[in-house]
Amino acid sequence: MAIQRTFSIIKPDATKRNLTGKIAAKFEEAGLRIVASKRIQMTLAQAQTFYGVHSERPFFGELCEFMISEPIVVQVLEGEDAIAKNREVMGATNPAEAAEGTIRKEFALSIGENSVHGSDAPETAAEEIAFFFSGLELVG
Ligand code: ATP
Ligand code: MG
Prior knowledge:
7 helices, binds magnesium ion, 4 strands, binds adenosine-5'-triphosphate, alpha+beta
């Protein structure tokens, strides 16, 4: 597997509880390099666009409101098989189903307030990175 880049968000429930460093450490311990990182607050329109794929789901409104409730930390992670590796480190969407040692098992509060987002495929990773970062912010 080649070196990949993936997109990550440390969500409001985690930034609010000062878990940014602990979550970043989990990525680094798994061999993922944080090649870009910034703390931002999304607008409602940005959250609705970012989660557009879920617009028909019953939790869409709640999800977008949650994602703008506090600042978030958006990051680009790089490494061998980074997309799958990141999702492994994150754990299952529902923390009750997440494996021991994963970020969601250790830190998530609920299926909605689940501390992290990670891209699910190379296409979405490229789109999501471009949504939040300019070329100038991404060193080679
Ligand atoms: P993410 O896309 O955030 O990395 P994921 O791929 O594990 O997570 P998705 O199915 O893409 O999960 O859902 C996106 C996000 O929507 C979840 O991370 C969670 O915050 C929220 N979500 C998913 N299912 C529910 C639900 N049943 N109730 C409330 N919120 C939910
Ligand atoms: Mg997803």
